[in-house]
């Protein structure tokens, strides 16, 4: 096998096609998923080592929190719900026993979480959601549209 020297910011992956021959085409999907995980991890490491002005500017979206952010935004911005009400709905598992002595502390923590989540929600609503879909994907899809 030829030796290849990688430059900074480059990653090389080797796919063993024998796995596809032995395991069928299903192995291809598994190999690609694993390669994507490796590339994602390598990109995250590389990005974190760059100077701040060169680092990726796309938002770091936590999929699990995305719907929480949007529900929170809708509740506060459109339904004009009070933050305490929202906390009791979004974080009800943490706020079950109103009579407990640490309930107020947990409400305060939920309030802080709501403030932080609301900032992210506003960022997403004000255009951050556009960065969820890679632009090359949009261009590729638009080229298939009838003109």
Structure notes:
The chain has 147 residues and is mainly alpha-helical. It has two domains: 1-57, no CATH class; 63-132, no CATH class. Helices cover 59% and strands 0% of the residues. α3 crosses α5 (103-125) and α4 crosses α5. The protein is elongated.
Q: Which H/E pattern describes the elements?
A: HHHHHH
Seen as an oligomer or otherwise, the chain set is single chain
Measured by DSSP, the beta-strand proportion falls in under 5%
End-to-end distance: 48 Å
Provide the number of structural domains. 2
Contiguous uncertain segments of 5+ residues: none
Q: What summary fits the major beta sheet?
A: none
Give the proportion of residues in helices.
55-70%
How would you sum up the global shape? elongated
Radius of gyration: 23 Å
User: How many extended strands?
Assistant: 0
Number of helices: 6
Task: Provide mean pLDDT, rounded.
Answer: 79
Structural class of the secondary structure composition? mainly alpha
């Amino acid at each position: 096998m030829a030796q290849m020297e990688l430059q900074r910011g480059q990653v090389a992956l080797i796919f063993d096609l024998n796995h596809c021959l032995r395991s069928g085409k299903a192995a291809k999907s598994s190999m690609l998923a694993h390669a994507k995980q490796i590339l994602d991890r390598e990109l995250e490491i590389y990005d974190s080592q760059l100077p701040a002005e060169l680092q990726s500017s796309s938002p770091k979206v936590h999929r699990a929190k995305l719907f929480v952010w949007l529900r929170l935004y809708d509740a506060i911005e459109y339904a004009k719900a009070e933050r305490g009400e929202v906390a009791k709905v979004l974080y009800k598992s943490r706020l079950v026993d109103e009579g407990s002595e640490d309930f107020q502390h947990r409400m305060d923590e939920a309030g802080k979480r709501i403030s932080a989540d609301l900032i992210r929600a506003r960022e997403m609503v004000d255009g951050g959601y556009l960065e969820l879909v890679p632009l090359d994907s949009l261009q590729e899809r638009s080229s298939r549209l009838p003109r």
